[in-house]
């Protein structure tokens, strides 16, 4: 029995000095494989074009040197290097020319010192060209004929793998035991050639003796498992940090080997490979005599193996480790960080302050420097990014509480005044627990960014950042539910669905997203992370009456007027929404205090009537003319306030009854939180039945126009069609 490691994607493009594309040396990965008892590395990266797309082309002298060094490095660590080639997309099996090119390519790699090979025919069309149809009785016959000839040409190496097109039970027609394709493979493929199998599905939840007996019979040999349990190349929002699990250790004696196809990110594979090594050692004799009775290691337990892996990983996580210096230089040459004072998308003249920008968030400190990840944080990280078919404890708690709080929001709404107090207390208790977990996720993001191991940062940051942003929206939504009247929701029920993991995108982050009223709008949630991570701690919450308008700002058109009142900017830009529609106002804050806000109006028609009936008269009383010099100023001010409300055609308001106004301070560090802030408002509007929202933007504000366009807003009205200059952008909810 052999234990294998398979790296299927994102590894070897332009290998220089054995460097992975994520900046970690191959030497480090080979050392860990050796340490954990793994003995084989299979080279099959999709970003090596000459592995699949350009399989006919031989490697250049420079590429030869790099591949030779890679093979030698693996062998020096006691690892078998398997070179895999995927010619199936366009090979003509009956073509002597293609067969000659295939032999030439593998002979070149053999001359570099490689002694083990794999021919992969996975994920290709079953159809054959006319020439192949005339030369072979079936698609399987064509593949087996070419594979047998290549195997003999290479001198019948000890390790030669064949990946069939029907490589799992769900791809077999009509079933694995009755598949004509697999029957041909089993009968005609030379017996010493090993056949790859992934289990009942591409990503199998479990592998048992019973499940392998069927395929072993039809293949007439024990299969080699190509295990995709931790593969994440099918979903850019998912990462799998959980233990090797669901594979009965007894299957080892019925296999020719096991390939683990790991996460694309090198640093994410510590626990998967560490626990895989534990699984492999289970039941073997303890040569040091330190095992249990009988001289064997105790029965494999995924939870116990996870604890052991976490203990070892903690030491590495908090050790300084930098990416290659040239990688950093490359990054800096492509993009410069945001400069203080430069406006960010969504910023405007108005701003809110929660008592000044020098105050910190309650109970939170500034996250910076090279900090230490605690064991509790690492367990949280693993629990949130566990396995494709199973969430960890923290993720389960997050989803269960969000589902329950959303379903039972009527207990705390305005219509729930007759609810029993204990029911209200239960809702608020679970809400408090949910909000605390969301805060832990935000703190985890902060700690990862500020951690000592920068290699871990660059590999894990996109996933931690994505979940942090989704949790910010969910947290704001639950806070809002506790204050406002909301409808009773129906949740997306994923229980009992036996499908491949890619059927539901996004992992925990995606499931939290789908539990939100606006969850189907993927453009609000799926964006690339900032190139330069920031450890600043952000929070999004509903507006409180204690939040005051910043009195240091003035209306640009009235600058220089000595009679300008200090409240003018707030009363004009923010006042109507905060006074008449506070339930749709959300605040963005960091460690220093409030740094942004988004204001919403659910029903523009009724809001305009209320504004004329109460807000404008109140402003006339607040800013009365006190003399001839101020009379014109006061008239202009009231006129501007009236114009700010705008007159929008019924055709617009029919489809887009709601309106939003987004504000952010220029020193906002992480631009992505502006999108998250806006998403929090859209979630609330959608929850209470709005079908569309619009925003008015000046045509010269290109940054804001681009920002909203990326979030699904489209231009629906321009100034020339109205009395105002602004461009109206809208999106349906």
TrEMBL record:
It catalyses: 3-O-(N-acetyl-beta-D-glucosaminyl)-L-threonyl-[protein] + H2O = L-threonyl-[protein] + N-acetyl-D-glucosamine; 3-O-(N-acetyl-beta-D-glucosaminyl)-L-seryl-[protein] + H2O = N-acetyl-D-glucosamine + L-seryl-[protein]. InterPro entries: GH (IPR017853), Glycosyl_Hydrolase_84 (IPR051822), O-GlcNAcase_cat (IPR011496). Its EC number is 3.2.1.169. It comes from the Eukaryota. Residues 7-284 form the GH84 domain. One of its GO terms (biological process) is glycoprotein metabolic process. Keywords: Glycosidase, Hydrolase. Residues 325-364 are annotated as: Disordered. The keyword Lipoprotein does not apply. GO terms for molecular function: [protein]-3-O-(N-acetyl-D-glucosaminyl)-L-serine/L-threonine O-N-acetyl-alpha-D-glucosaminase activity; beta-N-acetylglucosaminidase activity. Coiled coil: none annotated. Residues 334-346 have a biased composition (Low complexity). Signal peptide: none annotated. This is protein O-GlcNAcase. It comes from Nothobranchius furzeri. The gene is si:dkey-183c6.8.
